[in-house]
Amino acid sequence: MAAADAADVIVHGVNPPGYRGWAQLVLPMIDNTIAAARASGARILLPGTLYNFAPDAGAGAPIAENAPQRPLTRKGAGAAHHT
What we know:
mainly alpha; 2 strands; two-stranded parallel sheet
């Protein structure tokens, strides 16, 4: 709460350590971010995943909203189905 005091934006860019305990940890983590945003009046920025894009996506430029999704990993293939 103290870190969010007087913040305009809170970037929720966290994951459970080692991506383990996802089901038990993700919701409490975002619940804390939501509580801090409510207390401070800040907006929450929740970055999306990049796993669904090939390593050459954007080719040195920002990845466009309409960039093709060509995942190379199992995790990326799962992300491509949810976007």
